[in-house]
Amino acid sequence: MPTEYFEQRERALLGPRYAQLYAAPQQTAERGVTVSALRTTPEQFAQRADFPLKPSPFCKAAFVVHQPDFKPGRHPYHHAGVFYSQEPSASSAAPLLGVQPGMRVLDLCAAPGGKTILLAGHNNTFFNDLQHTEAGATVTITTHYGVYTYEVTGTEILDYQDETAYDFTRTDENLILYTCYPFDALGFTPNRFFVYAKYLSGPVLDANS
Question: Cβ distance 152 to 196 under 8 Å?
Answer without folding.
Answer: yes
